[in-house]
Amino acid sequence: MTHSAPLHVPPHADMRAVVQVIGVASALGAPGDGPAAGPAALERHGLLQRLKGTGIGASWQETLEPVTTPPAGALMRERLDAVGALAQRVADHLTALAPEVFPLVIGGDHAVGIGTWRGVASRIAPRGALGLIWIDAHLDSHTERSTHSGNIHGMPLAALLGEGDAALSGVAGPRLDPANVVIIGARAWEHEEHERLTRLGVQVFDMAEVRERGMGAVFCDALSVVRERTAGFGVSIDLDALDAAAFPAVTCPETEGIAPDELCAALLALRGCGDFVAMEIVEYLPDRDPGGMCADWVANIACAALGPSTYLLRAKEREFGAHNYAPLPVVFHHGKGIWLWDVEGRRYLDMMSAYSAVSFGHANPRLLHALNDQAQRLALTSRAYSNDRLPLLMERLCGLLGYDRMLPVNTGLEAVETALKTARKWGYKVKGIPTDKAEIIACEGNFHGRSITIVGMSSEEQYRDGFGPFPAGFRRIRYGDADALEAAITPDTAAFLVEPVQGEGGILVPQAGYLARCAEICRRHNVLLIADEVQTGLGRTGRLLGCDHEGVHPDGLILGKALGGGLLPVSAFLADAAVMDVLRPGDHGSTFGGNPLGAAVALEVLAILEETRPWEHAARLGERLMARFRDAHLPCVREVRGRGLLVGIELDPAQLRATTAAELLLARGIATKDTHNTVLRFAPPLVITEAELDAAADVVIDTLAAACAHRGQAPLQP
């Protein structure tokens, strides 16, 4: 079944809807033939498929080749004429493209740039001038008289600016204005080139400045230069701008260049530029890339620059996705440590860590190594067989937390369902509850997942609306009220399910002694105490487990989120043999539960926990964060509460709604989320430093203070 109508978005949101790849298989200007094979090699390696997989509507239009190729040792005159003829052909080809086409030129050596940018300048000439960002290790500003090497691919920028032999500088099309041309990453040049560019007024951000200020800051400045009084701008990337250690597949490798990932991160800014009109990538040598690593980087570079914008991606999500989420107005592209970057390259401090799942930071290198190493050996067998990772995880997790048995599943919801099934069967087989009479007690304000069984326990009306009838056998009591637990227990009660801190409920922390009293009540009545530590477990609250704050060892323990290191869904239910051994083969299972890939990552998570003891860091920083918020005495804040690095700010909705506050914080680079429209929650990765947390607190306090001051006592609308 196909969608009945096309996606409707404003024209500006789908800026590069039609990308056409034009290969130029030429090495006419280079000292060797290698670059000529670049376009075909990249096409074979799947560049087009990578573009399409990123959401780019791309096609490979054709690959142009030189009409004549001078023999080895040919005179400069013959070589210049051949390069000029090819450049004119490229320029004519680009000029003739349909107006809606965005050209992506794949070289070939950099001499093809003469044709690329003359042609692009001609395309936009009716609207105005062209600006150009030239990313290169060299200045490419020789002429036939100043060249030291005799390589014509060191001449294209001078030719585009109108200097050099007429065969190159005379290619039809507007000359570029030096005031709108920027070079980034240069680190190897002759004095003649530098003098020429200085005289003409081209701005050069050399590699020393890139290292000092960062690629992102330099690229931002470059954008301001090339967009000043122009109708559009292009980006030309000579791959030798990249560090040769990371990208050796180029004609003239130079050390200490731009890191490929830093270039990709900077290029994300182009997704939001409606005046970005063309791109060129040149100098890829496939014979120096036998494993395809550099070809992958070429695809990453193109995808970073040309991928869809926030607006378009959100439009697609709204049109083709079920409307069961209302995400904040951002689309994230990548993360590292405590930071997230959106698809336009803006950076955000992650104060949510995916509801505590990313406790050890995004792209944690140790966890990535464990994931990649295991993925190359064995990822999945199902539990029909044993694998060599799961038994080790079972042993280490049980030993760390003091239980006899561990049952692995995937999501937190599955682990809760596992606990409920096990508790009921224990109630029937061990406690002697009559068949189908077992009861489980939960709390008001709980959040244990979204299955029909679990939302049947919820007190949140929206979670229940339209999903009944619900399974029987569940009761709710007031959270934090141990007397209510005692009063609710009957001879048919099998278990009490509780969160040490209610996260979704609003970061609610019970009074001291609550869990200890509940444990005592459960022991006295032969009722299982089951702690849902999917969010609070593994260091989040300032102890290894949330229950550890009161020295409580629950009969059953539910873990998830952080156990998978933010890379995979990994969860578990732990209990002693007296509880877990009621299960027999066939009673419960999961195809993916306990898979070797997830087990390998979880094993590394446990190793990191034992080595770094992040709960100690979380305890200290959590107290510091809450003190900062309380000491600010913000008029819109009713209460600050939390435990460790699980902190909530309850707002007065008459002054500031939490949903609005979350959007205001997002605009200032803080990614958080509200709950119930009244509480902002803060749960950064546990690897955050004190300085980083203080900086985040400054932004939060300033944002909330400004919002309240701006609107006074009137509610601030989204």
Automatic annotation (TrEMBL):
Gene3D superfamilies: Aspartate Aminotransferase, domain 1 (3.90.1150.10), Type I PLP-dependent aspartate aminotransferase-like (Major domain) (3.40.640.10), Ureohydrolase domain (3.40.800.10)
Domain of life: Bacteria
Essential cofactor(s): Mn(2+); pyridoxal 5'-phosphate
Pfam family, one: Aminotran_3
Keywords, comma-separated and alphabetical: Aminotransferase, Arginine metabolism, Hydrolase, Manganese, Metal-binding, Pyridoxal phosphate, Transferase
Pathway, per record: Amino-acid biosynthesis; L-proline biosynthesis; L-glutamate 5-semialdehyde from L-ornithine: step 1/1; Nitrogen metabolism; urea cycle; L-ornithine and urea from L-arginine: step 1/1
EC number assigned by the record: 2.6.1.13, 3.5.3.1
GO biological process: arginine metabolic process; L-proline biosynthetic process; urea cycle
A molecular function GO annotation: pyridoxal phosphate binding
Family: Belongs to the arginase family.
Record-linked PANTHER family: AMINOTRANSFERASE CLASS III, ORNITHINE AMINOTRANSFERASE, MITOCHONDRIAL
Name of the protein this chain belongs to: Ornithine--oxo-acid aminotransferase
